[in-house]
Amino acid sequence: EIKAKVMYLAFLSGENRDTVWWVAFLDLRRLDGFMGIARWGTKMVGVLALAGVASLLGCGAEKEPRVTGGEPLVGLTLFEGWRDPRSVRGDVNTEGWEDSAFISPGGDRLYFGYTRWDAWALFAGFGLWVTGPERPGHLGSAWDIYEANFLGGAWETEHSRINSLDPSVSEAAVGLDGMESMMAFVRFEPGGDLYLGFRGAAGWGASEKLPPPVNTPCEEDNPHLSFDGGTLYFDSNRGDPLGETCFDESDGLQRTIYFTRWDGAKWSTPVPVAGAVNETDVRWQVFVTEGEKLAYWAGWSKDCGRTSTCLYRARLLEDGSYGERVLIARPAPFDTTSRVSVISIGEPSVTRAGDWLYFVYLVRDSDQHWDLSIGVAGK
Q: Which residues are CB-contacts of 84 (< 8 A; sequence separation ≥ 6)?
């Protein structure tokens, strides 16, 4: 049985008692499953070696940037040189719920999650309304991962082979390494856990559940792999590195952004990312650039104003922490009456050249419909 829980839609108050509206976040859970991790070390060593050789040979180089935007997005203020935010054109966005966007380093492949469930109905407490269109290959009504290729000036979307063939299992929240040979994602069967999938000559092979203490009884979500595939980032409500305690999220998101490194045999015990990434009042959905030099994430702090989540960026310092945060995107106030304004933004990812920013945005386009779709901005 699918169990859906609405996490919150509440106020936050600033020093001057300014009311800040927070967007509702959805926590989808299902019963725990198990998948073995045999041959783990062999696969990881092989993939990392391949990435290293390819880097030396110049493979995975940035392709020529392409114009990928559709309709302009209203109410979204951009900083630090980002401009012209638009919806992604082609067949990526629908009347359904697109989420978990991840752009490939070359900007020619877009990964994202999709569900036919109605976002407004879930956030409003009306349960699982199915209102989104059925995409080719979609199994059931819950989350599946899709891959879109940039062809002929627009995106063409296909159902990813990383998905389980079991319609009672769903997948979302994706992040890939620089060679796109490994995919980290969340699989709900029905409880959500972090998985890794490996791509070979024949495409995506079997996926494997990450072992403890990467996965714990707490929430682990929004995974992201470093460019070389050796570091995994994710956010969690765990109260300690081993996940022996979990923060209660019944009245608000309580996430910390963690990372774990592959040492050739196993993943290290996760530890919080040091510095600005974990210093906003709310933080999750991290993305790091090649060499982990820049970190982007979604979050809220006072500089976000009377709105929902903003997007931030911070630079890696010599001591391994991330320095002062920089606001790069702020949506319109959450209590706006506008039917076209972007009122929430999240899930940032950036091309290798740093010239395209992809994200998920929310528009409250009617009293009974919220549109969650994927947008893009350029430099």
A: 69, 72, 377, 378
